[in-house]
Amino acid sequence: MYKTLYLLLISLLLSFSCNAQSERILIDQELITDWSVYPFFDKLTEGNGDQRQWKELFRYLDSINIYQISYLSDGLKIKGFMASPKENGTYPAVIFNRGGNMDFGAINPAMAASLLGKLANEGYVVIASQYRGNAGGEEGKEEFGGSDVNDVLALIDLLAEFENVDTSNIGMYGWSRGGMMTYIALRRTNRIKAAVVGGAVSNSFKTIDDRPEMESVYRELIPNYDTNKEDELEQRSAIKWADQFPKDVPILILHGNADWRVKVDQSLSLAIEFDKYRIPYRLIIYEGGDHGLSEHRTEVDREVVNWFNRFLKQGEALPKMEYHGK
Questions:
Q1: Complete DSSP assignment for 167-207
Q2: 3-state DSSP call for residue 257?
Q3: Contacts of 59 by beta carbon, 8 Å cutoff, 6+ apart
Q4: Which helix (H) or strand (E) holds 157?
Q5: Which of 196, 100, 195, 96 is nearest to 155 (CA)?
Q6: 177-188 and 149-159 are packed helices; what angle lies between their axes, rounded to 10 degrees?
Q7: Is the CB of residue 144 less than 8 Å from the CB of residue 101?
Q8: How is domain 25-313 classified at the architecture level of CATH?
Q9: pLDDT single digits (tens) 238-287
Q10: What are the DSSP calls for 117-128, one per residue?
Q11: CA-to-CA distance for 121 and 128, rounded, in angstroms?
Q12: What backbone torsions phi and psi does residue 10 show, to the nearest 5 degrees?
């Protein structure tokens, strides 16, 4: 009898272990240890031969780890990057949503070191997806804001697999198309505490008006585009469903008024809708700013860190959106 119970217990434990392993999202995590193999290494360092060291602006790279990762989303193997502080501790997290499409705008080690790395150096675990089928990923095909949004949402559960992540404090940060991905994600989850978007697409109809060549991208990537154009574009246009945004997620909107890729009126119009529905937001328009706000990067980086610090680290109360005052 005892032998039978023992065997049953072992069987249950093995079954539990197998199920736990099968439910894991992370497939692979590879630490970047030798930066000298990348072409940009000489631009980021100074000195000669083996004595090369990071220039002062990039010395933060000694304080963080950067990984290339692969993980599961809808059963597909997706590529991505992650950056985290080396020092032991528990940190809030930020999901970064890249712009572009397919391999245009894909995250590379240089972008991971600068954009993800700088934020990680401020005390965040930063994780980003390449979206399905991109950057060497051979499974699935991105849909420019369709099922590939699941690749972003899967990162929330993936973060829970790391012991150094405070999953009660997760932010989301997206640029350009990544801003659109952020908007769609906020519509579908209640697990994001604060968000930042830059040069974000909020009206895909307007994008086609301003840049007709973008319709060929939509047609290539969005399933059933020609037969279901109106519905598909609406799903990718936050301006059409601004009333569905959560009212407990403060959103920082950044845009340059010299941006030709995504005109500034996309953010101006969405801000008016946010105001109508009392969605907590702050809108900053940078004079003469291009799509990447390259002329204002120092100020932009400061605003992004300050926003996440306020709502993910300092626990600042939500803005009081009811009309008030004398």
A1: EEEEEEEEETHHHHHHHHHHHH-S---EEEEES----HHHH
A2: coil
A3: 53
A4: helix 149-159
A5: 96
A6: 70
A7: yes
A8: 3-Layer(aba) Sandwich (3.40)
A9: 999 999 999 999 999 999 999 999 999 999 999 999 999 999 999 999 99
A10: HHHHHTT-EEEE
A11: 16
A12: -60, -40
198-240 per-position pLDDT tens digit: 999 999 999 999 999 999 999 999 999 999 999 999 999 999 9
Decide the pairing of beta strands 76-85 and 125-129. antiparallel
Per the listing, tokens 């965040």 go with: 124
Q: How far is 164 from 93, CA to CA, in rounded Å?
A: 9
C-alpha to C-alpha distance for 293 and 306, rounded to whole angstroms: 17
Place of tokens 């290339």: 68
Q: Are 235 and 147 in contact (CB under 8 A)?
A: no
Q: Where are the domains of the chain?
A: 25-313
How far is CA 71 from each of CA 61, 156, 186, rounded to the nearest angstrom?
24, 12, 21
Structure tokens at 59: 């010395």
Task: Return d(Cα 151, Cα 35) in angstroms, integer.
Answer: 28
Q: How far apart, in Å, do the first and last CA atoms of the chain sit?
A: 79
pTM here is 0.92
From residue 23, alpha-carbon distances to 74, 94, 95, 133, 157 in Å are 12, 23, 21, 22, 10
For 172, residues 6+ apart whose C-beta sits below 8 A from its C-beta are 94, 95, 96, 97, 152, 182, 185, 186, 192, 194, 195, 196
